[in-house]
Please model this.
Amino acid sequence: MADFDKNDMDTFCRAPFFKGLARQTVERLFAVGDCATFAKDTLISSIGDNFGTVLFVISGLLRVSVCSASGRRITFLLVKEAEPYNLLGPYLNRSRFLEAQALEKTRCLKIRDRDYLKFVEQHPAIVHNILQWIGKSLDSANSRLLDLMEKKVETRILRVLSTLHQKFGSPLLFTSQEISEIAGTTPESTLRTMGLLREMGILSTQRGKIWIHDPPALKDTEFGAIKI
Amino acid sequence: MADFDKNDMDTFCRAPFFKGLARQTVERLFAVGDCATFAKDTLISSIGDNFGTVLFVISGLLRVSVCSASGRRITFLLVKEAEPYNLLGPYLNRSRFLEAQALEKTRCLKIRDRDYLKFVEQHPAIVHNILQWIGKSLDSANSRLLDLMEKKVETRILRVLSTLHQKFGSPLLFTSQEISEIAGTTPESTLRTMGLLREMGILSTQRGKIWIHDPPALKDTEFGAIKI
DNA sequence: ACCGTTCCATGACGGCCGTCATGTACGAAC
DNA sequence: GTTCGTACATGACGGCCGTCATGGAACGGT
Model:
């Protein structure tokens, strides 16, 4: 418990995932877990292994992605502070094909599968939060499916920029490569699109940084938003 | 309760979703629900409404899809007997953008959101089943994302045919239109691909029917399977 | 200050596949 | 049996966008 301070718990209590939970419940969650710190670029779980540990990011950023046979990476999720990773892992005793990596130095609350399962049993209130979170993830995945089937690359990139802006603010610290891995396209297409947006005065770019000047212009909403 | 017979419960008890649950639990699930029968082509929930009811199909088939602005339909899920629909709806008190429709005459066990929430609270064992089911759905959605970003149309159609064959056997009672709505392509592309497969002797087709002669030939697995 | 690496930027090309068009065949209804 | 609606089948065209190539700029390490 010495690993965590009161501040960490405060942050969690205010975060969307923990909404509606008693502070005591959050404290007990901390009590059943350990602190784990991953250096930048650490591979936390790789494809094929049976990763049953649940993580809650305290500070830093995790990327959940796969690297396909053709060498292209596809990013499913970015996990930031007070967000959970692998909520369902302990319930699926089979290897998943996802890979998690720390994009920067990341400190996590780490909970072993058995402790997690026991905790959920003993604190049924959290089931509500878990299901809500997963539900949003599922809706988001479906929205992205729709985007990929329906929309052109430019629209998808717009959506990704908009979503990232909502989640991380401005400037965005991502390269065109990283953007393209989320949008499902190539760095070249991303750069071309951002070139257009720059001409339109909607954003400006620097090596690894993107300033969004006109967030509403990115909104092209049809149906639900995606969640990254 | 007179709406259901012992046979219905037997089917459910044997089904994957209910694996590991006591028969008594299944019986009580039936007890809190009503029987609902939908005629073919009935729209069960449409886009934008706040559909909080959980359904378990007893017989028949439901399609979960969206119809995009450009008029193209995209099918996310086919729900067959002993499978659940809208497991998470009661936990997400916001309108979802999915639309459910009965593809044939379909009989369901219908459970109102409040009854469902109460049931889950009183029967924590089912949480495990729910999370497992949702976990598979999430993995499946991610697999489809990967397919759409990575694979060409032919491969996707192959995957869809393979998955449908596993779930429904042979012959498949789907039109090229319906296949394309799952694979995220057009009927023309689907027909062209199936033309090739027919020449290779892997399948044969008739109006609305597809016989798969060589299921292994359809397998081109990389990473997880999709689930339709 | 030099150099290597990484990222940005932009042009040219080509192929996949979505769109349109046309014709055929099957099945249901009367 | 005739008719009509729907699905199958296949060809032609065109555009989006992925790939390759080239050059320049920014940053870090020594």
The first strand of chain A starts at residue 34 and ends at 38. Residues 152-153, 185-186, 188-189, 192, 206-208 of chain A lie near DNA strand D (CB under 10 Å from a C1'). Helices of chain A lie at 6-14, 23-32, 113-122, 125-150, 153-168, 176-183, 187-199, 215-218.
